[in-house]
Amino acid sequence: MEFKRLKYFIAVAEELHFGRAAARLGMAQPPLSRQIAALEDQLGVKLFDRSRNQVRLTDAGEVLLDRARDILTDLDSAYREATLIGKGGAGRLRIAFVGSATHGPLPTLIKSFRSHYPDVDLSLSSMNNAELERALIQRDIDIAVARPHLAAAEELRSARLFHEPLILALPDGSPHARTTSPIALRDLAAETFVLYPRRPRPSFADFILHVCAEEGFSPQEQVFAQDYQTAISLVSVGVGLAMVPESVSHSPRSGVTYRSYEGHNPGTSLTAHARLDNRKPQVVNFFTLLQQFTRRAS
Length: 298
Known about the structure:
Elements: H1 3-15, H2 18-25, H3 29-43, E1 48-49, E2 56-57, H4 59-86, E3 90-97, H5 106-116, E4 119-126, H6 129-137, E5 143-146, E6 156-164, E7 166-171, H7 175-178, E8 192-195, H8 204-214, E9 221-224, H9 228-236, E10 242-245, E11 256-259, E12 268-275, H10 281-297
Parallel strand pairs: 3-4, 3-5, 8-9
Antiparallel strand pairs: 1-2, 5-12, 6-12, 7-10, 7-11
Helix pairs in contact: 1-2, 1-3, 1-4
């Protein structure tokens, strides 16, 4: 059955007048009458009682009117939903990120994406860089936000979200947390450094060790944590100090003092990645919004 004939039928059923229904549909009356007759022939029933110069719905017509309205409503809804998903305004977007990214601009970017595309189902999770790369390759996620980037970045679509300096996270009880003098990184060689992640390597931990090496030392005591949250917890109870992105200082932590330092500071970045063959419109919209976001920030 043609959906066009259902629309014709509904117009006649609601107007109960072929002339008015034809005018409403923007067509001549004879073609409309032929379409209704063809529909009745197709169904093998009379839908209208045309006796006594009056058009009335038969019992079969009453039933079809209710069903036809539901069918066309569902069809219109399906068209709208398909169009919305096709343009990236609905559907699902899976984003995973390193734990420290929750203190930088990523939450603001995600909030902006939610505002622009409220019907997109956002799935958010925290992973380390190795887990991010594995999940991206296996198509378990759509977007990975890594620090500073993934090893396979050349084979991925990538965009830098943010670059920031490194700072020190010190236990409140540390003499370095109480002094007002500038802290020289090379003077911390005898301190315990809390590094993360413990595995896999190389990782952000090796990046920090390289920064220390540029200042001519390797920390005498090294304690490894599996993730940023564990590392900062160890700092808060006095296990040692950590070098962290500056943005984490925007979220105060009991037992932790954040200080800048003097010495080699290459900073650290957050980079968003997606597979080159992932052309989901939700992914395209995210990267477009990210580029607009970074342009405004700069």
